[in-house]
Design a protein that fits this description.
Layout: H1 3-31, H2 36-47, H3 50-61, H4 64-81, H5 84-113, E1 124-130, E2 142-143, H6 144-151, E3 157-171, E4 177-184, H7 187-192, E5 198-199, E6 214-218, H8 219-226, E7 236-239, E8 242-250, E9 262-265, E10 277-284, H9 290-301, E11 318-323, H10 324-329, H11 333-363, H12 366-374, H13 379-415, H14 431-456, H15 461-464, H16 474-509, E12 520-526, H17 535-550, E13 555-561, E14 572-573, E15 576-577, E16 590-591, E17 594-595, H18 599-603, E18 607-610, E19 624-628, H19 629-635, E20 645-647, E21 658-664, E22 680-683, H20 690-693, E23 695-702, H21 706-720, E24 726-731, H22 732-739, H23 741-775, H24 777-785, H25 790-819, H26 835-852, H27 854-861, H28 865-870
Parallel strand pairs: 4-9, 6-8, 17-22, 19-21
Antiparallel strand pairs: 1-10, 1-11, 2-10, 3-4, 3-7, 3-10, 5-8, 6-9, 7-8, 12-23, 12-24, 13-23, 14-16, 15-20, 18-21, 19-22, 20-21
Helix pairs in contact: 1-2, 4-13, 5-11, 5-13, 5-14, 11-14, 11-16, 11-23, 13-14, 16-23, 16-25, 16-26, 17-21, 23-26, 23-27, 25-26, 25-27
Amino acid sequence: MSWFRKREWRDANLDDEIRAHLEMAVRDRIARGESPEAARAAARREFGNVAHVKEVTREMWGGIWRERLLQDLHYAVRSLRRAPSFTLVAVLTLALGIGANTAMFTVMNAVLLRPLPFPAPDRLFTPSYTQPPSIFAPTPGLYDRHYLAFERDTTIFKRIGTYYGLALTLSGSGDPVKLSTTAATPSLFDALDAHPIIGRGFASNEAEPGQDGVVIIGERLWNSRFGGDRRAIGTVITLEGTRRTIIGVMPSDRAFPAMSDLWIPLKVMPQEGNLRLGNVVGRLNDGITLDQAKRAFAIRAAQFELPPGFELQRNEFVADVLPLKQVLIGDAQRPLLVFSGAVLFVLLIACANVANLLLMRMTSRDREMAVRGALGAGRARLIRQLLTETLVLAMMGAALGVLVALAGLKMLMALAPFGTIPRAESVHLDLTALAFTAGLSIVTAIVCGLVPALHATEHRLIASLTSASRTIAGTHARLRSMLVVGEIAAALVLLVGAGLLLRSFNHMRSVELGFDPSNVVAATIDLPDNAYRTDEASKAFARRVLDGLRAIPGVQAVGTVNWAPLGGTLIRGDFILEDGRKLPEGVAWADKPSTSPGYFRAMGQRIRAGRDFNEQDRAGAPGVVIISQSLAEKLWPKGDAIGKRVSNTDKPKPEDWLSIVGIVNDVVQTDVKEARGPAMYVPMEQTKGMTYLSHVNFVVRHSGSASATVAAVRQVIRDVDSNLAISVLASMDERISSTTLQPRFQSRLLLTFSLVALVLAVIGIYGILAYGVAQRLHELGVRIALGAAPADVMGLVLRRTLLLTVPGVLIGLGAAFALTRVLGKFLFRVTPTDPTTFAATSVLLAIVALAASYVPARRAGRVDPMMALRSE
């Protein structure tokens, strides 16, 4: 029997028992000679208050709290229904705050809190023996020869595997497409304890050259290309011109790395003189703690041999064992924590707004509270009733907040640049997020409702029941003012943060790039090894494409470069001077792009001295090089660089010397935040090695439509080789814009939060001023009747605005000065305490606050004294 049915059954039995008891008492009295009317009256008088007896009896049964809770909920719903405007504003305000926090918690939970989707994820670690993060060692891992030495040592890790990412072209079924691919040792899936949903993983011998013609595909690719057909196992596909047989399908929730579409087997084979840094995953042996693993690995790593040239840098190598989850998250934790703090500020402002609304509403309910207190309701009972009303508001806000969170998540994931949010595939609203929303709504209800409830239930019985109740509102004024001041301060903190990020982003956009990106289209292509095995094959492909590009109508200049500015890939290296001089301090290496004649004109780079490459700079001709202006100034400050010779090899032969024939201005090569590094450009025709030639960018300067030029460039490349997939094809402006996607996203996100906070603060300012004017109508009417000008009355409201705004701004400036330091890592050419940003946001907030006070001030100045006095 449910509690409700049991309760009804008990109530019915109690009614029957009381009725039977009264009937027996009446019969006894009638038997003693009393009249029926007198007997019934005496029996009821002797029994006492029937309702009180029922109440006492129900309390003895237990569970009375359920009944009172239902009563409180029923009363709260009726009370809120009678104030639809208040309810709507409060629910919408809470929905914004709760929804934003739910969306951000969902991201935080997926990225930082949720364990990796593998068995015993807390046993997965990355052993790392590398230099501190730099252009040569950006991520933790092991160099190939160290991995092989460590792979044979099973004292620390039960299983260990390595992998690296690349992009391979899938061809033969529709247009060629580049797919995210992971080259992994067969032991990687064993270390992760991850297995395909159909098919099998790599066998140990399938990493050997000649036996590696297999591939594992991801579930997404399986569904999109093969319709989820199990007969895909055994199908042969073409990757980079190589035929591979599908042997398994990896489930999306166990894919590693998460965004991979394909996995091919990897054989680790170190090359003399080269170091390849690999990502490594190891599963700790049972019984070994992390501290023990760190100590054992440090001892083992100290015995690793370093290749020639690295022995003197051994002290710079760091041996560590890092949790795999930490490695995958990388630097994403800091921005997530910053934005979580921002949405928490939004929620606090929303709570302050709702608390203010409740305080205003409680002022009109003083008489109600006093009457209920006079009828015997204790203060705790009244507080519980008021908190129940706030809880109903919070639950309604939470229900609407879930919709806000869903919309916010969809927008957030759509706008976030690729790679900004690690483990993005696991970001979704789940039961954990819903439980967080429910808990947050309860906390919000307590935060919003407790103080107003305490103030509303103060013992003011006589005052509330007399005409002096109008003065009671004054006891809430200070608290309401403090809440608005807090809203202004919190909004200013968010505005300052958004302002700093926006200024930083604008500085990035205004960086002098060293080239003119307007009216330039660039296409990036990676040539497959099997189809382009020789240098001449790659150069012939580039010549054919360049000839086709020159024939496009409206094309002014074309060229090629392997490492395009802001293209994401680059090769740097050292060099020597013919005169044997030691390189000056600050010049240890140089960027080494390979270009064709006409490239500098196509990119809009200026030749400062000398000449551009020409058709005579072909293979077999004397080697030439064009260097950047900064490199020329550092090596030959007297300006006599033209004609000097350099070499890219340590022990050059006569044919290895390159004569400097030109000086070109410096360009931003890697990142707008980095200084422009030295560069040495060599002709494509004199470049040797597929490492330099397999990655090529075609640059086209045009005078027509960008979209038409893009289409024409795509057709030219397809005509030359229809099996090639174009990695990137877009205008140079779009490519530059893509490099600042993350700071743009961060600044816009924080700006959105700050604007929401500003709107909420404006609502709070407007609400308290409008309510104050309504409460002071009689006073204002008297002032006007005694001769006060409307401007003087409006001045009273404006001064009230300043009394709220100035303290809020001062407190907000102090808080922003302390908190914005966490943004230091995200800023470019802006300090976390930038005075311009602090001053501008303070003035903006003051102007907005004064604008919010205009309507209440105008209403105060137009008060009709006769109407105000008559209403009293």
